[in-house]
Amino acid sequence: MLSTNPHITKIVLGITALLIGFGFTDPERETKVRVAPESEVVISGTTNVNEFTCKYNLEELELPIRLTYDNKAEQIQFRNAQLKLANDCFDCGGKAINKDFRELLQTEKHPQVELKLLYVDPPQPDNQEIGVGMEIKIAGVTRNYQTTLYCEQQGNICVDGTIPLKLTDFGLEPPRKVMGMIKVHDEIKVRVALQLNEI
Fold it and tell me: Which of 45, 74, 81, 128 is most buried (most C-beta within 10 Å)?
């Protein structure tokens, strides 16, 4: 049974929105999507003295993304709706902070952050919010969530949202720097702003 995190709302997973936008007419279907270059995936956080922002280089994303799903009576079940983000492709603005970020995520042992879509509740007419179940894997630790997705279709599929997470939920200890005087706070945020095309 999936756990519910009340702090996680308006989770955006672009592949979900794309499938909503193009509809579900077959009981089983395979499709491919491509992420437009103006899209963004950003991980941000704060310390007791400042903030940090790490932007993913989407040019390194393996494309196109292939999806397979079944249209069930109550939920749309997904088999391989997974987005893999290499830790080394996040740029935090400098060599030192990039190194700290990769060490925090235990990149040597676990080189990727993974987002996996499990299911989507069928969308309702004139309602841009739907229930989703998803799996997030960081540093080799996987957590399941039930939450709400907000999506919008304007020509292409355009989605924008933020996922608040806690480092300690994934077995990560918020690091301290400069003899313990600088401490990273437990909560981080993952912002996803995607424009997607079915190909």
Answer: 81
Read off the tokens for 165. 């997470």
pLDDT single digits (tens) 152-161: 655 555 666 6
Average pLDDT, the chain: 76
3-state secondary structure at position 123: coil
Q: How confident is the model at residue 167 (pLDDT cuts 50, 70, 90)?
A: very high
**Residues in a beta bridge with 196:** 35, 157
- Give the C-alpha separation, 86 to 21, whole Å: 27
Q: In angstroms, rounded to a whole number, what is the distance separating the alpha carbons of residues 4 and 77?
A: 18
- Distance separating alpha carbons of residues 70 and 139, to the nearest angstrom: 30
Q: Which of 40-49, 59-68, 101-110, 140-149 has the highest mean pLDDT?
A: 101-110
Helices (H), 31-190: 95-104
d(CA 69, CA 29): 6
Beta bridge partners of 182: 177
End-to-end CA distance of the chain: 34
| Total residue length of the chain | 199
